[in-house]
Each structure stands twice: as C-alpha cells, then as structure tokens.
Amino acid sequence: VLESTTDCVVVVDPLGRLTYHNERARRVLAGTAGAAPLLGRRLLELLWEGARDGFTAALGEARWSGAPTSA
C-alpha cells in the first residue's frame, strides 16, 4: 500500500534521519540528494527551504502527542 500511493511517505527516527521512504518520496527527494542514498540522511537536509518550517512544526507536534502527522 505504501509503495503504491502517490503520496510521499517517510519514516524518521527521533533525530530526523530517514529510516524508510516509499518510491514516490525517493523520486521527490532525489532531486535534492542526487544519486546519494537517502536512508540515514536527515530529512531536513533533503527538504527545500520552504518546506522545512512546516515539517519541523509537524514533527514537534507528533512527538508531543504521539499522533501521526499529515504535513
């Protein structure tokens, strides 16, 4: 299911490092990472500047509540 969705799906560890990404996320994030492997990289390093603040806020909220985010 996660591989067939057109949404980007990523899982990060508590330090923000990618531990999983689906194919759509790989294609989107590969533009900033080039051919380098994505797993283990900090997601904030891969996001374009305009997306960083929203992601940081959503991640902080998820940590506080334990709820999934949709940011």
Order of helices and strands: EEHHH
Helix content: 40-55%
Mean pLDDT: 78
Main-sheet strand order equals 1-2
Q: What is the approximate shape?
A: globular
Overview of this structure, please?
By secondary structure, this protein is mainly α. Helix content is 45%, strand content 10%. A two-stranded antiparallel ribbon has the order 1-2. Strand 1 and strand 2 form a beta hairpin. The chain is globular and about 25 Å long.
Task: Give a quick rundown of the structure.
By secondary structure, the protein is mainly alpha-helical. The protein has three helices and two strands, in the order ββααα.
Draw up the topology in text.
Blueprint lengths: L9 E3 L5 E4 L1 H11 L9 H4 L2 H17 L6
Antiparallel strand pairs: 1-2
